Structures are given as C-alpha cells and as structure tokens.
C-alpha cells in the first residue's frame, strides 16, 4: 500500500499476509476482519479466527486490540477499507494492476 498513511504493525502484518497468500481461506477471513474493523457496515466473526494458525490468531488479536484500545485514524481506516475492498472485488489472489 504505497503512499498510504503509516499503518500500525498489527495491521501491516495482516495486509502482508493477505498480499502474500491471497486466495486462501485464511486470507479471506483476514479481509473480513480488516473490513469490519475499518467500516461500520461490515461485521466479522471472531470465533472464526480460532481456525487460523496460532501466528495468525496472535496477529488478529494484536490488530483487534489496537483497533479497540488505540483506534485507527480516519485516514488509516480509509486506507485499510479501500485496500480490503479492492482485494475482495478483484480477488485476494490477484496481483496488483500496474499503474
């Protein structure tokens, strides 16, 4: 996500995983979590996160903790939402189109 606001490390970990492992069930679940954390019209099931490998569960926990306790800025929310929405529309496994 070049030229975007700096994201907290917890968000960057989820973004990096989806970018590297797009198209997997894990990536789709992480996208749902990012969407629900960045826009009030989306919901997530944290219970679904229990199916993730431990490393990803920890990353989700860190991200949700950050969102709830520290809060994302409006620009961070917009950046994450736009990224996740694009990933959902074109498919998480697709590569970025060249500009």
Helix vs. strand class: mainly alpha
Residues in helices, as a percent range: 55-70%
Q: Write down how many β-strands occur, each being a DSSP E stretch of 2 or more residues.
A: 0
Elements, N to C (H/E) = HHHH
**Biggest sheet record:** none
State Rg: 12 Å
Tally of helical segments: 4
Strand content: under 5%
N-C termini distance:
13 Å
Mean pLDDT: 86
Low-pLDDT stretches = none
Q: Which word captures the global form? A: globular
Report on this model:
The longest helix is centred in the C-terminal third of the chain and has 17 residues, at 74-90. The protein is built from 4 helices and no strands. It is globular and about 30 Å long. Helix 1 runs antiparallel to helix 2, helix 1 (9-20) packs across helix 3 and helix 2 (25-38) packs antiparallel against helix 4 (74-90). It has helices at residues 9-20, 25-38, 54-69, 74-90. It is an all-alpha fold and 99 residues long.
What is the compact description of this entry?
This protein is an all-alpha fold. It has helices at residues 9-20, 25-38, 54-69, 74-90.
